[in-house]
Specification:
single chain, about 160 residues, alpha+beta, 7-stranded antiparallel beta sheet, 3 helices, about 40% strand
């Protein structure tokens, strides 16, 4: 139902091209967002672990590439408000793991307390990792993101590579 309600759909590759424009270069291991569905109040992403990481995936309750995909989902929603501004996470109030995360799942991000005034562009999000039928696996409460003042790509040593 959330997919059908969204006003915009993007392929994951499009999201990673946008990140690259700002000097954030995600390697194959951290390109977990396959599809991104965006509406005014939420973003929903289908996440899938990279083939190269499947061998040791079972060693993790919450694989680092999957949690990063959840954070990328929030960045997609933040970019919906200000599409030419990249946002980076810098703090989180709470992370609750309810069940192990499978190799494919969904991340649902929504603004936390959208009515509050932000300081210096700081925005808060709540994120849930879900299986397709909607069961919650992980809750992230109050993920704080802030805008980068200008793209990293224009600076010779400013690009960030995330392998």
């Amino acid at each position: 139902a959330l997919k059908e309600q969204s006003t915009r759909r993007e392929e994951g590759a499009s999201l990673y091209r946008q990140f690259a424009e700002y000097g954030l270069h995600y390697g194959p291991s951290f390109r977990t967002v396959q599809e991104l569905y965006i509406d005014e109040s939420y973003a929903l992403a289908r996440l899938k672990v990279a083939e190269s990481l499947k061998g040791d995936f079972a060693q993790f309750i919450l694989h680092p590439s999957m949690i990063d995909g959840a954070l990328q989902t929030a960045a997609g929603l933040a970019g919906n408000v200000s599409p030419r501004t990249p946002y980076l996470p810098f703090a989180v109030d709470e992370l609750e793991i309810l069940r192990p995360v499978p190799q494919t799942c969904y991340a649902y991000a929504e603004r936390a307390h959208a009515h509050e005034q932000s300081h210096a562009g700081v925005t808060r999000f709540n994120i849930r990792l879900l299986i397709e039928r909607g069961d919650v696996l992980v809750r992230i409460t109050n993920l704080y993101v802030r805008p980068l003042p200008r793209p990293l790509a224009g600076r010779p040593s400013g690009a960030l590579r995330i392998a």
